[in-house]
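re: ur question from the group chat, yeah i did fold both. here u go
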Amino acid sequence: MVQLSTIPMALSVPSMAEDFGVDVSQAAWTIIARMIVIGSTVFFFARRGSKVGHVKVYFIGVIIMALASLLAVTSANINQAIVWSGSVGLGASMISSNSNPILAIVFGDKERGRAYSIPIIAARIGTLLGMALFGVFLQFFSWRLVFLTSVPVGMFALWMARPLLQYELLKATDAAKKVVLGSPSALLMMATLAVFILSGLHVHEGDESFVSAEALEYHLPVHALFLVMATAFIIVQRRSVQPFLNFGNFKKSQFSMALFSDHTFHMSMMAVVTLVPILVENGLGYDPIVASWVLIPGQFLGIFLPLIAGYYFDKSNPRWIRPAGLLAIASGFVLLALFSTSVPIWVLPILLIPAFIGTHVQRAQ
């Protein structure tokens, strides 16, 4: 459900811009707002799930996501669409932050690679269907139908996940219930992450640059605000008896490198799925349905590649698999940057294949 509302949903940005009579950069805030909410709240909802039960937070996330998608359909202007899209991100954050902990509780160390691959494959099938269907919606009907699809999918997800509520294993333990969540620290962390994301966005007048006069007036103060907030958060956490974020974990090389690779992978792939539709439609002048065709071949690999990678990871636990995945993602970016404007449209999916291979390998770990 989360995948259906992110990767295929990015296809609707140019159509929304045309419908509301705004620039693509403004319509892209529907995706940016969602990513800001997800990125800034996912850790909080993971901690919340540990305290009250991961299944409970998961179910609430599905309800919020479906309701916000329904409200997005009624948007009368781009600002309303951005607000509801951010609300969709809130539900998506609650789902994504608690789905893997549920799998980690149920499955052992030697099974988790394959266990993680199953929902990934399901997500890829949903993404493929979404891209194929959304391309038709955008070409012949309206972007509103794209948002509307999350409503029946959410209802189906709630129905299918009902048995999870019955398992004692997935309920919060007595020890977890006593953990202090630290709401002030959580709010400070969410605000700091949101400011950090905004500091890298070109939401200023003039060219999309970091060195122009308009850019400096925006980026320098926002960067400074982030540094102040980050410093305050670190000081508070270092002095806390039960810190919301334990910085001692970063001393563990496996934790730090896993966090770095996962961050790089997610940021890279969101750039691909957000910018490729804009490149195909606004840059190359093709219809929305063509943009979906460009992304479908890479998503098709997700039907089987995560299971293979998960099985190999469970069996051998190779150290090279994460660096290889990141290198593949980078290769796809380089190929797209070098040749996207000089090759036929049918070559673009081929250029993206390395990036999608790296993505599916990373997700299965």
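okk and heres the other one u asked abt
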Amino acid sequence: MVGGPFGYGRSRRPQQSFNNVTTFFFSNFPDNYGEYDMVKVFQRWARVKEVFISRRMNRWGRRYGFVRLFNVANVRRLEREMDQAWVGNMKLYVNIPRYRRSDLVHTEVPLRGKGVQSERSNMEERNGHKFKLREGNKKEEGRYYKGKERKEWREVNKNQSYADVVKKDSLNVWKGPIFETKQQTLPWLNNSAVGFFSGELSYNQVCEEFILGGMNMVKVRYLGDNMALITPNQGIRVEDIIRTNKQWFESVFEAVEPWTDAHVAGHKIIWVRCYGLPISLWNKDCFSKVVGEVASLVEVGKATENWENLEYARLQVRIPKTC
């Protein structure tokens, strides 16, 4: 976040009050522009207090951020002016954040004459919806009435940070692209099975077991996590192979199931380096405890097993994909 208690730069003017600061949401700017670059863009209109650019993307896959400006006299006019600006070869999108729109109070100046007022002077606009205050309708603090229907408005916490606002709008919301596509039918998949090998084995060790067991009539492919796709040669049913070699399959796999679309890896296998562990504790039991409860040890690197590299221990672990 760019800015400070006295705004951007080395200004020694006293700190502005929060009520004199207006926040704008912006997006659709070049990827190579950072917070300092956007400060230079917005300071053409007003003095910039700070600029924040989120690390997340919006629902359309674009970068976005917030800018806070001092002493904005006409918020709507400045919003329209900045929304028409261009940054490089991209048109900038600027508007008032959703969480601050209800802070704006719209007032209308009555027409000159003998007490004649414009009909719009009795209108209240909040979040893009207008409510006409007719006779008998009361406006109380935080509440508006429209006939029998009651609309209730809650004061927004003005001390809410940018991070809180971004997290609130971003949690549990898919921000990636959404599209439709065709699903192809592969006959050989319908004649395949998925084997779940134990955590003590790696995929390479499973392949070695197939070679040593003489299972040259099947093809084994890694599906991720602890799953291997078993596909027999053409003309052979996978059920017949498993039934004939049941004892051998039970020695290699914990379970074998027919393949379906639901067989998607929920974990991933990665290599990590473990620094600072005394060499006297370099054993499989200690490594299993070091990786923690979330991860599980799969394999110890050859250089670690053979004491070739003593700077760190190289371990292969299995962790959830959400980590």
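fwiw on the second one: Residues 4-18, 105-155 have pLDDT under 50 and may be disordered. The chain is about 20% helix and 30% strand. idk if thats what u expected
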